[in-house]
Amino acid sequence: MRFTLAAVSGAALTGAIVVPGGLLPATLQEQTPLSGPRLAHHIDPDDDAYWGPGLPAKDAVASSLGKTADRLAAAVDKALEVVEDARHVLADKLAHAMDGNGYQKHPSLTIYELIKHSEHTTKFAEIVDEHPGIVKLLNSTGTNYTLFAPTNEAFKDLPHGGEGKPGKHFVEAVLKYHIGLGEYPAWRILSTHTVPTALDERLLDGEPQRLRTSIGLGGVTVNFYSKVVAANFEATNGIVHGVNNILIPPPMAGRLISLFPSQFSTLLLAYEMTDFAKYMHSVKLVGGTVFAPTNNAFASLGLKANAFLFNTKAGRKYLAALLKYHISPNATLYSDAYYDNTRSGSDPEEDGLNTAHYNLPTLLDEARVRVTIVNWGPVSTIEVNGYSHVTVRDGLAKNGVIQAVDGVLIPSFKHSDPKKPDDTKGIEIEDLMERLAPYV
Ligand SMILES: *[C@@H]1O[C@H](CO)[C@@H](O)[C@H](O)[C@H]1NC(C)=O
Ligand SMILES: *[C@@H]1O[C@H](CO)[C@@H](O)[C@H](O)[C@H]1NC(C)=O
Ligand SMILES: *[C@@H]1O[C@H](CO)[C@@H](O)[C@H](O)[C@H]1NC(C)=O
């Protein structure tokens, strides 16, 4: 069912919000079967009450979202292949894109004046003008910002007319989410994975919500779906990059996972079978990291272990324990930033310039996960417990971050190193039970 929106500039922003969770490109909007009241629910920025799976895996929407997830995964794989040398090529490409767009540099103007001045950002500037606080922010010279300004192009597919204008509060949050804290010219973005924004997130204890940047041969992409189409416009108080899609603050972690059944249908099934959403609603969290095993990760446990976990009554309890082990409460670990709200406050161990080790708590009492992050320019590798790898990094959520992993994490025996399940045979049920026994 298609619905319409008021043809006012504020409402224009909702066009990209129509998708549940809002992390998807505008082209998928029309396939989203949300009605007006549900939409209102979906875009309520204060809506915290969501964890569990949302979309049934078999409907058309879910499958098109699944395809998007596949493309995202492929794009991420590509990004990982970018080697040091290629960075220069990319920098050239960016510089080129910047020259060829008919933009002009105005180093004597503020960011606010720059977007008012440019014929490519008139629609965005119009919305900014309705929010004096944002005008002030972008025109103040006390602090430097990086604005990811949606070009007029970004507004072109938005539906017009009708009801459903989002609240001012929400639009303001969206605007703030386009404003990076500090100066991130293109060269710096090349070695950045996430950028803090002016949007303070209550669910992250007031820390800045972040944008995810990635680099592929097509240039820089923000949050998987918005491309930097023109880079490096200098202002007196920072930098402006033009992007071709509106950036929407991320949804709750549970909802985000439910958008990608082609990667996570087994995990979603596990959540459902263990009534995990209900459990999560009872846990008090200030941010967190969800290590989300992909379908392949579950498959590599082997048939026997999966049959035990999913098809037996006894296995259900072990499955619940396993799921808890994949969540680090109050520890929001991005590939290049860490919001630590655990009271244990253990600092990461630095290991040379590029490597850091973290020892994170989990929802499984004292069982911890060990994370090693190696950052090298645009490339980052994240290893968990020594045998599982993050395949899609930094899935931003309102209440934390999702790191997709290619192996199911299993707590080790006390005092012994975590062991990788045998690749060919999976894990023995006895082994699985023994390792989870203290937590069941
Ligand atoms: C923006 O700042 C400039 C000086 O930095 C000032 O001249 C101008 O009036 C300000 N504009 C607004 C709308 O506040
Ligand atoms: C903002 O950036 C400019 C140019 O890089 C620099 O000279 C200035 O000191 C910065 N201002 C602040 C407040 O950081
Ligand atoms: C997370 O932090 C909050 C605030 O400090 C605390 O109340 C809560 O118990 C913590 N949650 C867990 C699971 O440690």
Automatic annotation (TrEMBL):
Pfam families: Fasciclin. It comes from the Eukaryota. SMART domains: FAS1. Residues 108-247, 251-409 form the FAS1 domain. This is Stabilin-2. The lineage of its organism: Eukaryota, Fungi, Dikarya, Ascomycota, Pezizomycotina.
